[in-house]
Amino acid sequence: MASTSDFKNGLCIEYNNDLFIIIEFQHVKPGKGPAFVRTKLKSLNTGKVIENTFNSGVKVTTARIERRAHQFLYKDDIGYHFMDNDTFEQVALQEEVINAPQFLLDGQNVEILIHAETDKVLSCELPAFVELIVTYTEPGLKGDTATNASKPAELETGASIMVPLFIDNDEKIKVDTRTGEYSERVK
């Protein structure tokens, strides 16, 4: 059990028969009336983000979540297969559980969130940025760089993203897995 004074970003709570992670919170003390805490909660089961207000001092049940390092092995018709880096046990996950499956490379390290009491896999998170090689993109024309123009590029994982005109084939780029956008060129 925790009270609203224990709220912090990343805290996992049980609320309305679901598991939520606190994304954002703000303690509000109005001039008139009791204090309260305004929160944004993300459901670990559905991925929906809801806004909720808790009265100050209310007790909530916290859930214990473990982050375990895993390595991506391969994908087949069953799902995506990962190996635990500590125990070497393998687990197969469905695509809906992974936050950016289009950027997964063989041998890539990820973090899998597991509910400690039930051992249920809640989500699989890639690192915030991954480095991938551009396999195909149209050549950029000289003189087109005056504007912030972009062009489509196919990556080694098969994903397609928009990149600046100066990016060529076989270049390594950094991609933000949270937004799916180009971040920078890797030297």
Please, could you describe this protein's structure?
The chain is 0% helix and 53% strand. The termini are far apart. The protein folds into 3 domains: 2-62, SH3 type barrels (Roll); 65-125, OB fold (Dihydrolipoamide Acetyltransferase, E2P), CATH 2.40.50.140; 129-185, OB fold (Dihydrolipoamide Acetyltransferase, E2P). It is flat and about 65 Å long. Strands 1-6-2-3-4-5 form a 6-stranded antiparallel sheet, with no helix packed on it. Strands 9-8-7-10-11 form a 5-stranded antiparallel sheet, with no helix packed on it. By secondary structure, it is mostly beta strands. The model has no long low-confidence stretch (mean pLDDT 91). Strand 7 and strand 8 (80-84) form a beta hairpin. It contains no helices and 16 strands.
Q: Layout of SSEs?
A:
Blueprint lengths: L1 E2 L8 E4 L2 E11 L7 E8 L5 E7 L3 E4 L2 E11 L4 E5 L5 E4 L15 E7 L4 E6 L3 E9 L12 E6 L4 E5 L7 E5 L4 E5 L2
Antiparallel strand pairs: 1-6, 2-3, 2-6, 3-4, 4-5, 7-8, 7-10, 8-9, 10-11, 12-13, 12-15, 13-14, 15-16
Features:
five-stranded antiparallel sheet; OB fold (Dihydrolipoamide Acetyltransferase, E2P); 3 domains; SH3 type barrels; mainly beta; 187 residues; flat
Largest sheet geometry: 6 strands, antiparallel
Radius of gyration: 21 Å
Share in helix: under 10%
Strands side by side in the biggest sheet: 1-6-2-3-4-5
